[in-house]
Each structure stands twice: as C-alpha cells, then as structure tokens.
Write the structure tokens for this entry.
Amino acid sequence: QVQLVESGGGLVQPGGSLRLSCVASGFAFSVSEMQWVRQAPGKGFEWVASINNAYGTSRYSESVKGRFTITRDNAKNTVYLQMNNLKPEDTAMYHCEKFRSSYRGQGTQVTVSS
C-alpha cells in the first residue's frame, strides 16, 4: 500500500535551518508530482511547495519563497524540503503528499522558537 514517511523535524531557533525528508513507497514515485503542506495549531492545511516529476520544476507559496527549497531523489523515492531562515510562523506539522491524491504522510513537527 501507499506509504509516505516524513522525518527531520525538530525544535530550532529563529533564523535556523532544518531539512525534512519524505520516503515514499507503494506507487510510481518517479512519475508523480509531490508536494509539502503544513498545518499550524488550530489552522487548516497550507500548501508550501511542489515539485514535478519530469524536470524537477518547483513552485512555492509566497510565505516561504526564497527560504525553502524542495528537491527530489527518484533513485531513493525521497522528496526533501530544505528550510532556511526559519521564522516562528513556520511552526507547524509538515506533511508530504502525492499531488492530486488523498495520500498524505503522518507528518513531522517543526517548532521555531527561542
């Protein structure tokens, strides 16, 4: 069955960096567009970034553009989210998703606080 397993979250000070990973299995990862979404406490899901399958073309929400980078390694069935210059408002549970599907991982918690 489809599995998406995120890792790499944690507690970091403002201005710090984290790299999230999501290992996928159970579907054709290399031909699937992937994305990261996040959910802050008490709020709905917010799209963060997407990366397509063929050329690795990426898109970002305005709130993270210039600070976050999404990449993928099709040989490892893994999508990454490099997060730099983190801000307290980036605090959320981060999930990876298979684009245009109901498949979403359990998430990894990112907390930005001094």
Remarks:
- The radius of gyration is 13 Å.
- The chain has a mean pLDDT of 95.
